[in-house]
Amino acid sequence: MSFKKSFWIVLLLIGSIEMNAKDFCIYAGKSINIQCDTSTVEPVVKSAIRMFAEDCKDVLESSVVVTPKTGDILLHIDSKLLKGKKEAFKIAVKEGKIIVTGSDNHGLAYGLLEISRLLGVSPWKWWADAMPKKKSSFTLTDGYADEQSPSVEYRGIFINDEDWGMMQWSSLNYEPWYKPGRIGPKTNSRIFELLLRLRANTFWPAMHECTVPFFLTNGNREVAAQYGIYIGSSHCEPMACNANGEWKSRGVGEYDYVHNDSNVYRFWENRVKDVAHQPILYTIGMRGVHDGAMNGAKTLDEQRQVLERVFKDQRQLLAQYVNSDVTKIPQVFIPYKEVLDVYRSGLHVPEDVCLMWCDDNYGYIRHMPTVEERSRKGGNGIYYHVSYWGRPHDYLWLGTFSPALMFQQMSSAYENGIQKMWILNVGDLKPAEYQTEMFLDMAWNLDRVRKQGVKGHLTDFLCREFGDNIGKELSPIMRESYRLAFIRKPEFMGNTREEEYHTNYYRIVRDMPWSLEKIQKRLAEYGTIEKNVEEIFRKIPNDQKDTYFQLVKYPVQAAAEMNKKMLFAQQARHGLCSWEKSDAAFDSISALTRRYNTGFYNQGKWHRMMDFQPRRLPVFEPVERSSSKEALCKEPQYIACFSGADSKQGSFESCEGLGYEEKAIKTKKGKKVRFDFECDAMDSVVVEIRMIPTHPLSGNQLRFQISLDKQTTHIIDYATQGRSEEWKENVLWNHSIRRVVLPIGNKKRHQLTFLPLDEGEILDQIYILKN
């Protein structure tokens, strides 16, 4: 056979293979048939189908037809999928069709919406105006397959501290037919759409006094059922009751289970009877009407005895109205703030109840489960903050919470057995969009986020929203923004504090303890990323300008302007620049916020959502003009400066993106970390050790030793208890600092060794300076 003839035979065979390959392909304008018997599926699947149909219309201008007989996309449920895992799904392309299999109704809904992601639809399509690009066709190749299942069973968010954002926007803009103070079903349906797109299933509704409670607002419970969302409640809102908002209207007497138990019991009973037939994740236990200790019981022993009686009575209600086998009802107990002390005093919590642990409100988890707690049938959960109202200072305004800290702490939580329930306090949700997605992505598939890494996950998010070129250009800018805010959040730049009622000292804006060199360096760093964000904005297409403004431009530039406002004012107090620079920065924040609320092309969709002065705290005001005769701080004379990852010898794990220079390391108990340096002869040096202020993984100690050449320090413990003064400073600076003086002698070369004595210690920096 000639070469020429053989060549054509090969081409014909290849062509035959291509013709026989049955990829799934839909062209724009062609209708898409979904095979699904809607009479047999739950409402969550119907909601997913509706959302998918809207996505197909947006991307392909294609309509969706649902039929029980045949289709291009086949939906069915197989409870044996992935060894019976809950909410799992599998997508496969075979014979030109997409087959979506769910292990249950939620899994089927997530699987269908995964196809929306493949179409190019962002989860933030509505909440960040991230409308997808039009396409002429969509193809998935024959043999395509994907299986997914959740890492954490219950995954969700808590809308909180909604007084200046979500409540105002919802009741006065998005649903203005309600009287002010209601967050209604139209708003909640949008939240639940987002949760489905982010593969979440749990929601804690807003619960401040300014907001009409969730179950007292008509339509709310119905939309929760429509989207298959478990409604839970926060640490002080047991039995699906918003005591803060409902006791005044539904309760009788004092909210006190010592002296008024019958009326409190009836208050809970009426709600349980009312919601018994819809998905509820019941918080059990009791605190005060709002975020305070319970009434009536004073000592730890009294509180423990009351709580154990409360558990018994609440579970009796659940058995009576929800399921006679109370162990099959999802329940959670949250040892938060003072309740943690009650729990540690010997409180007995029923074995099937999930124990939900908490961070310290600033991202550092206070308690990791013991071996006994990890073995409990009810499992363990976490309530985590990326927004907070309270002492030592709020951070309710900008979504600057460190993704690297979240990744490190939540990974550690999972490794330590916190795998049943993850809830994130997102404040008003905007502008904490990215932190919300990262948290829920970790809850859905922790291994995948680990493989991406902190940098990779952020880059993928930005590339999805703005395209590969701009996304990759933005990634280092956003990482730098998070790094600078980790050093000091914008809300903390006044050097003020809140809720320290014994003195007005902390409500007066004061100098930051920084040298002029450090101030100018920080202003330059913010100036660079602010400029870069503005330059990229000019390249953003008009249909993405609102998205870019909300996700990038506003949070970066508003943080930069807050730093300028405060640091120019500090220089002006010392006669080093004009006050007009500080005032101009305040005006810029105001103008940026006005633009956020009016939008570019979204016609004022977010009017009243963004408030740059939540709680009207002193830090948000124009800085009052004054003068200071005290000298600015002097920059110390450092002999050597190290970040943890600068160590050339030792056993440790890098914490990607975490720390003042993004080089913090997680050390290993009993394993030394060594740093080498040179210096001139002198009697002694000060060694300053800067730790990330985590809490103990076990016990109540965080200890280390420092050795300089052959001189070893005594054991140093930096663990904090409660809301001590040291803890307050630690969370404001994201550092726990210890200083020791060590003799150094006449040698030129020296070896410094850090020896951790407890597990989970994270070393950020070591500074060596003249004594």
Strand and helix map with partners:
Layout (H helix, E strand, L loop, with lengths): L2 H18 L3 E4 L4 E4 L7 H18 L3 E4 L5 E5 L11 E6 L2 E6 L2 H15 L17 E4 L4 E4 L5 E6 L6 H9 L10 H13 L4 E3 L15 H7 L3 E2 L11 H8 L10 H15 L6 E3 L15 H22 L9 E3 L4 H7 L9 E5 L12 H4 L5 E6 L17 H13 L5 E7 L5 H12 L1 H21 L1 H20 L28 H22 L7 H29 L5 H20 L39 E6 L5 E2 L1 E3 L10 E3 L5 E6 L3 E10 L11 E6 L2 E2 L3 E2 L7 H9 L2 E10 L3 E8 L5 E9 L1
Parallel strand pairs: 2-3, 2-4, 4-6, 9-10, 9-16, 10-11, 12-13, 13-14, 14-15, 15-16
Antiparallel strand pairs: 1-7, 5-6, 5-8, 17-28, 18-21, 19-20, 20-28, 21-27, 22-26, 22-28, 23-24, 23-25, 23-27
Essential attributes:
single chain, 771 residues, alpha/beta, eight-stranded parallel sheet, six-stranded mixed sheet, 37% helix, 18% strand, globular, disordered N terminus
Shape: globular
Strand order in space, largest sheet = 11-10-9-16-15-14-13-12
Strand content: 15-25%
Structural class computed from helices and strand pairing = alpha/beta
Q: What is the CA-CA span between the terminal residues?
A: 90 Å
How many DSSP E strands? 28
Low confidence ranges: 3-20
- How many helix segments? 19
Radius of gyration: 28 Å
Largest sheet, strands/sense/barrel: 8 strands, parallel
Percent range of helical residues = 25-40%
Mean pLDDT: 94
Structure notes:
The protein has an 8-stranded parallel beta sheet. A 6-stranded mixed beta sheet has the order 3-2-4-6-5-8. The protein has 771 residues and is α/β, with parallel strands linked by helices. The model is unreliable at 3-20 (pLDDT under 50).
